[in-house]
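WARN retry 2 of 3 for item q-0093 after timeout on previous attempt; input resubmitted unchanged.
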Amino acid sequence: MRSYTIPLVPGPVSVPDAVRAVYAVDYGSADLEEEFFELYERCERKLQHVLGASTQVTIQTGEGMLALWGALKSVVRPGDRVLAVGTGLFGVGIGEMAQQIGAEVEVVEFPFDSIVDPTPVREVARRFRPKLITAVHCETPSGALNPLEELGQISREVDALFYVDFVASGGGVPVDVDRCAIDLGLLGSQKVLSLPPDLSMVTVSERAWEVVEAVNYAGYDALKPWHRGPAQRYLPYTHNWSALAALDVALDLLLTEGMEAVYARHAAVAASCRRALEGMGVRLFPQREEYNSPTVTAAYVPDGWTWPELDRALRIQGMAVGGNYGDLAGKVFRIGHMGSQANAALVERGMEVLRRVLSRTA
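OK item q-0093 returned
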C-alpha cells in the first residue's frame, strides 16, 4: 500500500508520532485494573474541557459511527418522533437511521451549499413535537459548519433531546455542549483528535440519561452500561487500553497548545487553503465564506477534469485528498485540514502540488 507524503484527507487524519508511539506499549486488562479506570476518568475530564461540557462523557471502543448509532438506539423506540435537520448527506442520513429503528421521522432539509436556518426548524418542531432533534455541526461532504445554539433552544422549547454529530468539528471548532444545550454530543477519534478510528465518545446530559434508562436498549453500542459502569469499575466489554492511552496524549497536545490557539490555527490554515484555491480559479463549495468549516474545505472539481483524473494526478505527486458521496460524488472534492493536518506548511505543500497539476492543462 502506498504511503502519501502530503496527507490531506478529511479523516482518518495522519497520526502524530507522539500518539503513534503509545500503541507500541503493552498494557494490562482494561476491565480489571485500577490504572485503566483512572486513565478513563482523566480522559473524560479532558474531553469535558475541550468540548465545553459539564455532562458525563462516555468513551467506547469503536469507530465514530458507533457513537451515532449507539446514542440513537439508546433514546429512540419504534414510533417515537425524530426531527432530523440536514444540510448534507450526514444530516439527512441520521433521519434515515432513525427510520430504520422504527421512528416516525420528519426532515427539515436545506441545500447542501447552505447552512441551517432555525426559523423553519422551529416551525416544524412546534407542529411535530419530536422526542429528539438531530443535527450535524460540520457536514464534512459539503464543508459547511452549522450553527447550534438556536437549535438547542428550539429543542428545549418543545421538550426534545438535542442530538449533535460533531465528529468532524469537535476539538477544532468550539462546540460548547453546555451553552448549546446538547444532550447527546457525538465524537470520533479519527478527525481533530488525530487518532486511528478506534474510539467513539458521547457527551450525555442528565435529561438524556433519564431517557436512556427508560428505553433500556441493550447492545454492544448501548450507552446504558456507561452511565455507572466506569465509576463502579465494571465494563460491558474489554476496552481498547492502547487507544485510550493515545487519547490521553492527544488531548494533552490540544490542551497544552490551548484551545483558543487550536481554534485560531484551524481558522488560519483554512483561510490560507481557500485563498490558494481561489487563486487557482477553483470554486469553493459552499461559495459563501461564512458557511465554511475551519476543519475541512470542499471545492468543485476544476473544469476540464474528472474527479478520478484529478485524484490520480494528485496521488502520483504523493498527495491524498477526499472524494465525495451521494449527489456531490464526482463534482466536489475535499481537503482535510483538521487536527494534525491543520498545519500551514503541509497545506502550503498541498496547494503547490495542486497548482502544478492544474497548470498542466492551462
